[in-house]
């Protein structure tokens, strides 16, 4: 276990749950103004509006990593996102040169609800990864494989990549990271999102028959033949995002039929069939930027998490924005971060009894930092 969680008594949250949003917001703002620069509240674009309203900075996964890495004045970070993001913030904010600048003082990183995980990150358990690496080593020279992990992964997997000459990527720099990897080895093992890996590699001219999928639940070579693995360029781990998996080619066709000229804008965690049909594919940051830069009157069907699409609709009434799926696709774990949890976390922090502290152990930090620093240099 690479994370230590100091959770306060379960009896403390219910009173917060009974407070109105208005009261919670006032109390949150009270703590923010009293702690001033000592506190940094970071929010991912998928957070609900009520929470985003209190964040100092918001961004996509890459931007949030940069913000955590650059934080100097703050003593604490409250991360309104999911577990792997808070782990990454802890690793980057407390890296050796930053600790030295602060005379050894750590930045305390907190996640308001410890149940805010990521189902995709959970699809690549470190034991499964280590077994796969060993099995692959029996048929391919491991020193000719670069392990690349999407930032949506546990710190232990980032550390595995760091230890084996590998690197972390985000949805905004995956192509540059793959290029970095191919400058070193002729093969990549890509975790845990097969769709981001496939969509990125296809754009680089790698074909599907060079991208076998490794199923960690198949005992025999992840369900592949020796020949398929030997001929591979990218071995894709069989993971996916349950939110983005819901968008289909049929949704794209239905929108194109109903709204001729509509632009389809999707996240690369969507399946290949959706990415292939889209006009633009990119990180949450790129999705926002694309809409911001479009002329008034542009019609969009956007395939990413619901809260972000609804916020874009509200912020851009001059454009016509639709959600790409007829069913609700929202990140249920991200949604666990609400005003009650945020207020509870902040008031405990101010009282000197921080709760839900994310602290990655030293060994995991050391190696995952290696992989994260490579990523920050490549971008
Ligand atoms: P980005 O914000 O980096 O595009 O990532 C999307 C996502 O799924 C975060 O978990
Ligand atoms: Fe994980 Fe998907 Fe939620 Fe992102 S949207 S945090 S990948 S479950």
Automatic annotation (TrEMBL):
<dbReference type="InterPro" id="IPR003473">
    <property type="entry name" value="NadA"/>
</dbReference>
<dbReference type="InterPro" id="IPR036094">
    <property type="entry name" value="NadA_sf"/>
</dbReference>
<keyword id="KW-0004">4Fe-4S</keyword>
<feature type="binding site">
    <location>
        <position position="171"/>
    </location>
    <ligand>
        <name>iminosuccinate</name>
    </ligand>
</feature>
<comment type="function">
    <text>Catalyzes the condensation of iminoaspartate with dihydroxyacetone phosphate to form quinolinate.</text>
</comment>
<feature type="binding site">
    <location>
        <position position="44"/>
    </location>
    <ligand>
        <name>iminosuccinate</name>
    </ligand>
</feature>
<feature type="binding site">
    <location>
        <position position="118"/>
    </location>
    <ligand>
        <name>[4Fe-4S] cluster</name>
    </ligand>
</feature>
<keyword id="KW-0411">Iron-sulfur</keyword>
<comment type="pathway">
    <text>Cofactor biosynthesis; NAD(+) biosynthesis; quinolinate from iminoaspartate: step 1/1.</text>
</comment>
<dbReference type="GO" id="GO:0008987">
    <property type="term" value="F:quinolinate synthetase A activity"/>
</dbReference>
<feature type="binding site">
    <location>
        <begin position="267"/>
        <end position="269"/>
    </location>
    <ligand>
        <name>iminosuccinate</name>
    </ligand>
</feature>
<protein>
    <recommendedName>
        <fullName>Quinolinate synthase</fullName>
        <ecNumber>2.5.1.72</ecNumber>
    </recommendedName>
</protein>
<feature type="binding site">
    <location>
        <position position="241"/>
    </location>
    <ligand>
        <name>[4Fe-4S] cluster</name>
    </ligand>
</feature>
<dbReference type="InterPro" id="IPR023515">
    <property type="entry name" value="Quinolinate_synth_A_type3"/>
</dbReference>
<dbReference type="Pfam" id="PF02445">
    <property type="entry name" value="NadA"/>
</dbReference>
<feature type="binding site">
    <location>
        <position position="331"/>
    </location>
    <ligand>
        <name>[4Fe-4S] cluster</name>
    </ligand>
</feature>
<keyword id="KW-0662">Pyridine nucleotide biosynthesis</keyword>
<feature type="binding site">
    <location>
        <position position="61"/>
    </location>
    <ligand>
        <name>iminosuccinate</name>
    </ligand>
</feature>
<keyword id="KW-0808">Transferase</keyword>
<comment type="similarity">
    <text>Belongs to the quinolinate synthase family. Type 3 subfamily.</text>
</comment>
<dbReference type="GO" id="GO:0046872">
    <property type="term" value="F:metal ion binding"/>
</dbReference>
<feature type="binding site">
    <location>
        <position position="284"/>
    </location>
    <ligand>
        <name>iminosuccinate</name>
    </ligand>
</feature>
<keyword id="KW-0963">Cytoplasm</keyword>
<feature type="binding site">
    <location>
        <begin position="150"/>
        <end position="152"/>
    </location>
    <ligand>
        <name>iminosuccinate</name>
    </ligand>
</feature>
<dbReference type="GO" id="GO:0034628">
    <property type="term" value="P:'de novo' NAD+ biosynthetic process from L-aspartate"/>
</dbReference>
<dbReference type="GO" id="GO:0051539">
    <property type="term" value="F:4 iron, 4 sulfur cluster binding"/>
</dbReference>
<keyword id="KW-0479">Metal-binding</keyword>
<dbReference type="GO" id="GO:0005829">
    <property type="term" value="C:cytosol"/>
</dbReference>
<keyword id="KW-0408">Iron</keyword>
């Amino acid at each position: 276990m690479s994370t230590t969680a100091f959770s306060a008594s379960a009896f403390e949250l219910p009173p917060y749950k009974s407070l109105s949003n208005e009261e919670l917001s006032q109390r949150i703002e009270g703590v923010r103004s009293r702690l001033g620069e000592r506190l940094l509240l970071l929010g991912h674009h998928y957070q609900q509006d009520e929470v985003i309203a209190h964040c100092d900075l918001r961004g996509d996964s890459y931007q949030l990593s940069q913000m955590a890495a650059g934080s100097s004045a703050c003593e604490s970070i409250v991360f309104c996102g999911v577990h792997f993001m808070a782990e990454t913030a802890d690793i980057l904010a407390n890296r050796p040169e930053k600790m030295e600048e602060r005379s050894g003082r750590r930045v305390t990183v907190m996640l308001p609800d410890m149940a805010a995980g990521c189902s995709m990150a959970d699809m690549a358990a470190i034991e499964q990864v280590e077994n796969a690496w060993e099995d692959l080593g029996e048929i391919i020279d491991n020193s000719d494989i670069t392990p690349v992990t999407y930032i949506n992964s546990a710190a232990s997997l980032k550390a595995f990549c760091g230890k084996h000459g590998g690197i972390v990527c985000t949805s905004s720099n995956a192509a540059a990271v793959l290029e970095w990897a191919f400058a070193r080895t002729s093969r990549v093992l890509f975790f845990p999102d097969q769709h981001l890996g496939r969509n990125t590699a296809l754009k680089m001219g790698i074909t599907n028959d060079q991208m076998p999928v490794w199923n960690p639940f198949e005992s025999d070579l992840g369900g592949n033949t020796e020949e398929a693995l030997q001929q591979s360029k990218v071995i894709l781990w069989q993971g996916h995002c349950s939110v983005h998996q819901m968008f289909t080619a049929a949704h794209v066709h239905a929108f194109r039929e109903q709204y001729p000229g509509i632009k389809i804008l999707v996240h690369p965690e969507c399946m290949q069939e959706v990415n292939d049909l889209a006009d633009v594919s990119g990180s949450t940051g790129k999705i926002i930027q694309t809409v911001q830069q479009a002329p008034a009157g542009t019609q969009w069907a956007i395939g990413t998490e619901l809260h972000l699409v609804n916020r874009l609709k509200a912020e851009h009434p001059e454009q016509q924005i639709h959600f790409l799926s007829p069913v609700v696709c929202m990140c249920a774990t991200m949604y666990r971060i609400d005003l009650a949890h945020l207020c509870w976390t902040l008031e405990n922090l101010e009282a000197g009894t921080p709760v839900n502290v994310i602290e990655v152990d030293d060994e995991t930090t050391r190696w995952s930092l290696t992989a994260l620093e490579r990523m920050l240099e490549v971008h």
